[in-house]
Amino acid sequence: MFNFEKLDIYKEAVSFAKRIYKITRKFPKEELFGISSQLRRAALSVSLNISEGSSRGKKEFKHFLSIAIGSVYECIPLIDISKEENYISAEENKAIYMNCNKIAAMLNALKNSIK
């Protein structure tokens, strides 16, 4: 097992990406290369940056965590547009938003703990 696989934030990020993949399966086919693809890439980027950054030094790891936070933030307008286009419900939007908020807080906490 790699060290990053033991991190709660990594596990949370993988679960988040899986959730996004499941939700975007019901998006219209015309969004396959639009919002659906962009949302999937942003969600997947969180766990990818955690894993890649963990193989670097502390300064670089913090940089990769910052990129992961940016990817979480990128999901917000995408889920908002998805709600406005009726691809997801208001409840799904709220749940994903809360998940993003939790992940961003966990990433910030990890970043701040690295000395």
How would you describe this structure to a colleague?
This protein has four helices and no strands. Helix 1 (8-24) runs antiparallel to helix 2 (35-54) and helix 1 runs antiparallel to helix 4. The chain is mainly α and 115 residues long. It has helices spanning 8-24, 35-54, 58-84, 90-113. It is 77% helix and 0% strand.
Tell me the β content: under 5%
The biggest beta sheet, please? none
Query: Shape from CA axes?
Result: elongated
- What are the low-pLDDT stretches, counting only 5+ consecutive residues below 50? none
| Span between termini | 24 Å
Q: What's the total number of strands?
A: 0
Number of helices: 4
Question: Mean pLDDT across all residues, rounded?
Answer: 97
H/E topology pattern: HHHH
Q: How much helical structure, as a percent, in the residues? A: over 70%
- Helices and strands: which structural class? mainly alpha
- Alpha carbon gyration radius: 14 Å
Summarize the structure.
This protein has 115 residues and is mainly alpha-helical.
